[in-house]
Amino acid sequence: MEAEGTTVGIIGLGLIGGSVALRLKQQGYADCILGSDLSGEAANEALSLGIINEISSTDNLLNRASVIVIAIPVDATKKILPQLLDNCKSNQVIIDMGSTKSAIARVVENHPNRSSYVACHPIAGTENNGPSAAFSTLYEGKVNIICDKELSNGKALETALEITEIMGMRVKYMNSVEHDRHIAYVSHLSHISSFTLGQTVLEVEENEKNIFDMAGSGFASTVRLAKSSPEMWAPIFVENSKNILEVLNAYIANLEQYKKMIEKADSSALFAAMKKTNRIRAVLENGAKQKSETKELIN
């Protein structure tokens, strides 16, 4: 697809969609960014910040955009994606950026225009939301997971890969079921843990000043994700409930083990459990090394 003159439509103008828009404009891929958001306030803010060129209706996006990027909560994506496919042109490409994939995949699996759609999940984000949280380098060095690639036509997949490269991301392929199972462990559980910790501290510590006076960097980093958007994360937890419940059961079992060890004042068992878990450092460092080596090969 030629970059010059490309019109891109972004549905959802928060951190995810706004950062896509900024990057595509910065890199010269998009000649015009049309933006749509259920919140008129968010749409106007995105326009005033220069994230988009025009506020647009969905019908206008379908009439004018070569590429439409969906960056809204996953439950809303399930509703709007079939409507977009109903009315899209044969040369249009529709990409969604949702954190769960299998439920969305099921909604459109038999749609006659399914091949115009590419299911993506860029593993990137911050705890902030709204157009003002968007920045053009959000995706640099991150991974974009493309699911069920065999169901997308050649042009759609080529466009998704081109945008992935422009974003500065590496690509990984999975089927949507496998994706949701893995992401429950490495992303969704982290957010649930953070929300739960924040809730517990707020419930127990009535004097909020003490929280700020006593909170160290460990607490701040652990609870950071609890500042994330409930509008985005509540639907994710529901859509991926089967996998999340499986992960939660394992997590709760481990918490119960720690509780028992502490009740018994079993310092040896606690030491052994924590020492065993320390190997997560090596796992993460090895992953970071592989990511760096892959980036060097690409460059």
Plain-language structure description:
The chain has 299 residues and is of the alpha/beta class. It folds into two domains: 7-175, Rossmann fold; 179-298, 6-phosphogluconate dehydrogenase C-terminal like domain (6-phosphogluconate dehydrogenase C-terminal fold). The protein has helices at 15-26, 40-48, 58-64, 74-87, 102-108, 154-166, 176-204, 208-214, 217-223, 230-239, 241-263, 267-277, 280-298; strands at residues 7-11, 32-36, 54-55, 67-70, 93-96, 117-122, 143-147, 170-174. An eight-stranded mixed beta sheet has the order 3-2-1-4-5-6-7-8, with helices on both faces. Helix 6 (154-166) links the parallel strand 7 and strand 8. It is globular and about 65 Å long. The two termini are 22 Å apart. Residues 293-299 have low confidence and may be disordered.
Chain-wise SSE layout:
Layout: E1 7-11, H1 15-26, E2 32-36, H2 40-48, E3 54-55, H3 58-64, E4 67-70, H4 74-87, E5 93-96, H5 102-108, E6 117-122, E7 143-147, H6 154-166, E8 170-174, H7 176-204, H8 208-214, H9 217-223, H10 230-239, H11 241-263, H12 267-277, H13 280-298
Helix pairs in contact: 4-5, 7-11
Based on CA inertia axes, which overall geometry fits? globular
Task: Quote the beta fraction.
Answer: 5-15%
Question: What's the CATH architecture of the largest domain?
Answer: 3-Layer(aba) Sandwich
Roughly what is the average pLDDT, rounded to an integer?
89
Distance between the termini: 22 Å
